[in-house]
Amino acid sequence: MGGQACILYGAAEFSRDSDFVVLADNDNLGVLKSVLLELQAEVIAVPPFKMQYLKKGHAIHFRCQHPDAAGIRIDLMSVLRGVDPFEALWSRRQTIHLEGGGERVLVLSLPDLVRAKKTQRDKDWPMIRRLIEADYLATVNPGCEKIIFWLRECRTPEILARLCQIYADQAHGMAATRPAVADALSGDLDKVALSLFQEEVEQRRDDMAYWKPLRQELELLRHARDP
Amino acid sequence: MKQANDIYSERNVLEQLTAAVGDEWMEWYRMTPTERWDASGQLWEVYIAMGGSLDPEPDTQSPFHFLPS
Lengths: 227, 69
Known about the structure:
A: 11 helices, 56% helix, B: mainly alpha, 3 helices, 0% strand
């Protein structure tokens, strides 16, 4: 769901770890434990690898020791802020078949990945913009769902203005809920940029508020482990 | 289908986008997922060969920035 997914969808991130969103139930955690055992993966930070922490929204951090994967970091999460429960994510997953080796990679759908990237971190916001730009360029005959997705998530003023021009009906329908779309309909790109910035500020603030109790819990766990 | 249209014509939008992000990004956008995956893998090989660390970069904005390096 992290940097590797972004690369497949057209953005780019030199991510040094692999992030996975997983189903937190007994059966799946049993399977995960056997896979992590095979990778000789060890938990390297709080919280411990327990279902209760995954269900609360924490990430579990591992480092692999197997010679074929030595040093590789793995992060597992089950709950992401602003993103649907795992079952819905799984039903919308994308399977990307890599040419040549016959490998396949299962990733979050693009709309889910974009929602997951709305965090408090600077680096995630240009990523969202890149993801939509790449999708826009790669799509020749967009369907209704795709058009609504672009109007809801596009962060490039020029493309948003273009979308509002071509798909005016859908844009007018969204203008009341997304000020950037209303500004794009008026053709004022400076106002679009301001509205996009305001969206980012609000999402970053919400993400910080979401993480505040989780961070406090992590601090308590850390102090209990290293008094 | 996307159609060309006056001020924000497809051509103008692409020109503006190219001016904003540069040719390298436009080239990256136009690659297939496999091509991007392979290009990223090649970058990794160079990075590891040069002794690059597998530890994530310090990111003070991450909720996990207390992780050991």
